[in-house]
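Archive entry. Fields below.
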Amino acid sequence: MIWLIASALLFSIGAYGALTRRTAILMFLSIELMLNAAALSLISFSRLSGSLDAQVVVLFIIAIAAAEVAVGLGLIVAIFRRRETTNVDELRQLRG
Amino acid sequence: MQETFLLPLIIALPLLGFVLLGLFGKRFGEPAAGWLASLLVLGSFLLGLFLLLQGGAKWTLAEWLPGIPFSLNLDNLSGVMLMVVAGVGFLIHVWAIGYMHGDPGYSRFFSYFNLFIAAMLVLVLGDSLPVVFIGWEGVGLASYLLIGFWYQERVNADSARKAFIVNRIGDLGFLLAMGLLWSMFGTLSISELVEKVEAGGYSFTTLTLAGFFLLIGAIGKSAQVPLMVWLPDAMAGPTPVSALIHAATMVTAGVYLMVRHAFMLHGDGFLAGLIVAIGLLTAFYGALCSLGQWDIKRIVAYTTLSQLGFMFVAVGVGAYWVAIFHIVTHAFFKALMFMTSGSVIHALGGEQDVRQMGGMRKYLPATHLHGLVAAFASGGLVPLAGFWSKDAILAYSFEYGPWLWALMLLASVLAALYSIRWYVLVFWGDYRGKAHPHESPAVMLWPNHILMGGALGVGFIGLPYVIDYKNFIEPFLTRAIGDFPHEKLPVVTEWVLIIISAVVAIAALWWGFRFFQQKMPAWYERFQAAALQGFYADAAYNALLVNPAKGLAELLFSGDRGLLFGFAGLGSLMGGLGALLARLETGALRFYLAGLLLALVLLVGWGVLR
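PREDICTED_STRUCTURE:
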């Protein structure tokens, strides 16, 4: 039960970071925090229910997070090379 | 009767000319284009003559429309019409080579002209009603194109449209007749219809109705009384068009159609009476209007109306061969009259007002001779072409009823008067204009020489039976039309009728010759003013039909516009909403994220509180 609270805290910190940071790298870290929070809560649920199904999902989350970081960091590096900045407020070329 | 592919070739020749001149006309250059067109028509004429001498021909393309073959038929009746259309058409083509000299649309003109001949030949040769209808619409189209030939002038384009629209009203009748006949007999081939009608076993009322619809079609094409308003306006086209289409061929198509369907009209008292009434009315209306016109071509146009009325009367009294006979003679003398007028117009550099003419007999001796013969033939002087065909109509009218004979005699007095008025105003007195008249070139004179020969002599193919001379055309035509026996008038009566009509024509011509040279009395001026307006027929049509229709159209149009305006408003409203939503799309990542999280919180909140 305590792990669930920790997970909630971790998620809130992540959400707060994702909303307030302007640098793409730090937003990225915050998103990782939220993902970890989600994984943590899944582990706790698995413990509580005694079933291993949720742990399988956690493995998937870790794999996806690794892939996401590889692609995301590549993108950020590429953007930085072109624009000399990673401030997301200045990167709005995709606006409608 | 033989099956031969030469028959469609008759139609294909002028059609080829239409295509060639339409595509490469400019490259042929000025005289070449005209000669090409003329020679193709001559080719059709010679081919047709050859087949006619062989005793006619048939040609059928079985797989055309389901149940309706594409069939052509050259019998004696269509053969005579073909001779007139291609023969007189050829002469007018040659004449037009001179008349259209220097026109920027020279090759276009001859292209249309050939199209007209092709369509007219389809009409004449067609053996099933849909085929006839193709030709029927084709000549309407060519007529439209040629009336509006000088389309830069608004008036010409309007006249072309008027002719087209009025003709469509008549064509509706034709279509209805076709539908009715199809539902009655299950065939539209004319030769099969003849057999089925003779076999009997159908409702006579329905057949009368079909005949009535056909009559409406004929009225539209032949410009008879309720639908006559387009013909005088059609004079906006070049003079060869007036001569070929609106005097010699297309306008007689209505009469031809009715003669072709004589088997339906024959023995139907109601239809016969109706046709006689319409023809009589038109004969008088056209004649009286002609007496008041100042435009030389409108004078002749109204005389054409009047003569077409004569033909209708002939059909109404059952004298079918006489109607065709009158078409033949009329084609000669009316084409001559038109082309003489054209030569005068040409000589005066485009002047069409007869008040600016006069005295032409000194300046244009050859054209004067043409005009003299045309006027006498049209006025019914013995023994020119117009006399014999008109006399035959009068004789049949006498059998129908002496009152009709008397009225027709009066109409022919008017015919003599308008012919001689035209002649006097153009050729006698002193020259009233300012141009320098010059005689036409040989290419225009020779066709007129030939037509003059026709106007003089063509009547002798149909002399009345009392004159001991072989009537060539009656047995020739009745073989194709069908034999409708009638009692011949006693010899004495016939002779009396001939002498009366001859004397009356001479007297009317002489009186008119004197009368139109002097100053007009006041009563005549008043009559003239009314006749000049066509007795206000156009004004009445405008007040009764055209303006209400226009008002309705305007009303519907404004309704339309309101509807469109509403739809456009709805569209722009939706567009505005879309633009408002589009402003949310800023491209700012953190704004999106905030939205995402907000939505998440709301969703979770909703899930928990539910």
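CURATOR_NOTE: The interface with chain B takes residues 15, 18-19, 22, 27, 88-89, 91-96 of chain A (CB under 8 Å).
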